[in-house]
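G., before I forget:
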Amino acid sequence: MSDTLPTRQAYRNRLVELLPEHERAICLDTDTGLFSGVDFGSAAERYVNIGIAEHNLMGMAAGMAASGWTPYVNTMAAFATSRAIEAIKIDIAYNAVPVRIMATHGGLSAGHLGPTHQCLEDLAVMRALPNMTVVVPADAEATTALVDDSLTLPGPLYVRLGRKATPPLPGAERPVIGKLQRLRPGTEVVIVACGPYPVHAALQAADQLTGLDVGVVNAHTLKPFDVAGLLDATAGARLVVTVEEHWRSGGLGAAVTETLAEHNPIHVSRIGMPDTFAGYVGSQQDLLEHYGITADAVVQAVHQQLTATR
Amino acid sequence: MTLTAGPGTEELKAHALRIRERIVDVCATPEGGHLGGSLSLVEVLTSLYFDIMRVDPGHPDDPERDIFLLSKGHAAIGLYCTLAERGFFDPEELSGYATTGSRFMAHPVKAVPGVEMPTGSLGHGPALAIGFALAARLSGSARRTFVAIGDGEMQEGSVWEGAMGAAALGLDNLVAIVDRNGLQLTGATEDIVPMESVGERWRSFGWAVREVDGQDIAQVRAALAETPWEPGRPSVLVARTTKGAGVPFVAGNAKSHYVNFTERQHGRARSALRRSAPRGGGDE
């Protein structure tokens, strides 16, 4: 399967198209380089590179949003959600203002740049904040649709984007923020995933799990979490497996287990990054393989659990 | 807005005195409160709300209003008492300060009419102010943004992120006021983290700087009335103040930071305010 645009480039391309038409939208950058050489045309004064200052970025975005603007703020996921978290919490989430936090280098996509630039905690951190919408588009096309929807979405939005090209999600319907996306019907085992590689791992695992009725769900919106959609998709299931490019705590696995524990306690096996920093040097795909966020790991988890409970 | 159009200095002093009296009253409510840093800021708040800023208590959301952000959010009592004096809400409401179910928290909340943004975690005001100021400039609005920063607060790195950022953007519709009362929670700022020359630091970051006696309302209003002092640069007023100004038995003492007055102390403070000139300053 050939890769398409990195989700961050899909976002950039769409924002560049949209900015001239939306006079109260503004792009605030922290010298990320994502917009180098971009011509914003008539919207040129609404692209501002404020320098390497993530707290300042979040605070000023909140001030602009409180003045009636919709700022698209740009930094890496690690710097948004760990470094600038207090400004996001107090200035953005507490005020419920429409800031769009466009966070690149999510998950392990920073690859060989190492744990300083990788971000495996963002979904947990952002999901904990009241008023925040948290989204992980699974491919470039979904990212474009999300950027369109973000123009009018009330309140703050966190978008986890990647760094390099990732596989497209062929045939998927246009995602709707807040609604789980059923990619493959199946009720015996349900695999719930988010992000480009985990969703692909889920689909591949479903193909490999012959003899079982396996459903696949793309949980692109972590918050607000589609509780009804999950309960519907998992009704009658023997096993649910979550797959994410995130530490196993606090992210998608947590959202799914919290929901099911309260409403329909099915066993959940969580595939994600072990409780460690990546000490291994490699590309995003190397790291996913090394740390077991793969189709094979899903297949193994399913066999293990179904054997154990037989 | 010109000085001649504004209220007289004596009128401002009368407002300042009433604001101080209310601050002292609030610090005698069951939880007590941040007294010292509220009192030191009274002349700044009075100048802003009764002379300098375009605000309309009847329309707190007026889109053309000027913006004030209390970055040193622990001086919320000072802000609440000023807003009450200005007519944003009934001053009587302040008697319920910090009681169960009250809308008056110890750090500013937007539930209180006139409060623009919640603050209190130090170092957030400058970035917020930049956002308001940039939005105004891009919208072609004459709105100005004012942000009050504590001198101890300048130990937060984000203050300097904002200082650099505002100067880089050339936001001359932005005015910061540093409440230079020289004290923070446990002692003198200069004993904890020396920060003189405060003015030189801001100047080196690209700001236009003026220093005044922050308890002299005529000096404060005169300086604030003339911003921007240099086109293309944000302005910072270093207001040299006294923590606890106006209440002699706490003035200049770090322990004035948070005070829960006994009935007797409350009476002493009220008497002192009655006797003293509204100028305060802690030297009576």
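The radius of gyration of chain A is 19 Å. The longest helix of chain A spans residues 295-309.

More on Monday.
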